[in-house]
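Figure caption, in words: inputs first, then the predicted bound structure.
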Amino acid sequence: MKMLIAGNWIDKSPKIDVRNPFDNSLVDTVPRGTDEDIQKAVESAVKGYQINKHLPVHKRVTILNETAAYVQKNFEDFARTIATEGSKTIREARKEVSRCINTISLSAEEARRIVGETIPFDSVPGSENRVGYYYRFPIGVIAAITPFNDPLNLVAHKLGPAIAGGNAVVLKPATVTPLSALKLAEAFMKSGLPDHILNVVTGSGSEIGEALVSDPRVRMITFTGGVEAGLEITKKAGLKKIGMELGSNSPVIVLEDANLQKAVDSCVSGAFWAVGQNCIGVQRIYIQEKIYNAFETAFVRKTRQIKVGYQLDETTDMGPMITETEAKRVETWIRDAVDKNAKLLTGGHRKGTIVEPTVLADVPPEAKIDSQEIFGPVVALYPIKSLDEGIEKANKVNYGLHGAIFTRDLNKAHKAIRELDVGGIMINDSTDYRIDAMPFGGVKHSGLGREGIKFSLMEMTEPKVVCFNLDEN
Ligand code: NAP
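Bound structure (NAP present):
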């Protein structure tokens, strides 16, 4: 596919191969963008900002609704693209396409609700004759950088609200999964988005990222990805607004009064969805001692039922990891835990990009997986004596995106709500629960700011105060 700069689809060499992670077959190629392409894209976005900020809201709404309809019309093509360039199974990919349609439709709805309020200037002596209000105006040129694991919907989470709010965008999608993003850009262009408002440059983050994030014409960076790249970007960004959606190693607490089967089913799904390459994937499960053995047995049994294989096979439950390098890293982390006396309950093997769904117990604090983000199909089970111990262990890491608790006791649930240091807490669901309209983001190293369309729109627009002095002289 080609990249999109100033309304033109640009093809150039050298190219980057996009490969299916299952068998390394070539899916397509995209241009390897350069700093010069970034310059052109930002230049175009500066024009695009002037165009979009003057578009009446009803026109933005129409474009967004038509984009959502285009994705709906080409549903299966989008799903196959996600499942071919990335790790998700075709069934997981279809769910992502549905979410993308919802994300873009929500952006259209929220575009109508970008409102301000009147300001009580007469609350201060001397201002009795002043009246006014604030309204929200677009922030300008936004640089959007996205990861591989939700290659369509996480792009929609940037483009939908940015366009709804009257901004222009330069998007740099993940190098391994650029096709879903380019197809979404195509959907926008076919739905009447004027040239320049959206630009997409494909290429390596380590090569062209700096040119994009340090450009002073960019007013905001919205980044989703790992902590390492996030920190690197903050160092280079200079004076601009930054939204960061980063990683986590989400904790779930299961108390003895919980519905055990529900907790098991929900945690197995939450741990292995998208091969565990999921920022809110379940990684650490703290189970009260009385039910620990029953939970462990049921959890391992359910994990062993997961069918691993080719993403496009309708019966596959879990596909390959995104690259062999990533699969090898995960294998090393499993070995690290086992070498430090963790017990391997099931899984643990790797073949190429396929890593078996893996369950560990007795993981010591020195093992990487105890505190860092594995971002792979591996989960650790821990017995706890009490809710307090669960909360303390859940909070001991430097992440805090989602947390979860399974209990029927309202007081205990409320204690977890108060005490867990996270951006979202699920009661009787795993950490992997999310809808696209809710505020989404984390504390500590899990991020800065919130996404979820209405909340992204707050980040992507700014208040402008208007004050009339009605004194006659
Ligand atoms: P990543 O390696 O951090 O890459 C994310 C994006 O940043 C890619 O487009 C990458 O480009 C680009 N990038 C890398 N280094 C850069 C730099 N120095 N300057 C500018 N851009 C740079 O993350 P990933 O492996 O794709 O995704 C996994 C991570 O994302 C996990 O930590 C996961 O938890 C997190 N994540 C968070 C959320 C959330 O909403 N909180 C959602 C999904 C994923 P290249 O592809 O060219 O390297």
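Residues 145-150, 154, 172, 174-175, 204-206, 209, 213, 224-226, 229, 232-233, 245-247, 279, 373, 375, 401, 447 surround NAP (CB under 6 Å).
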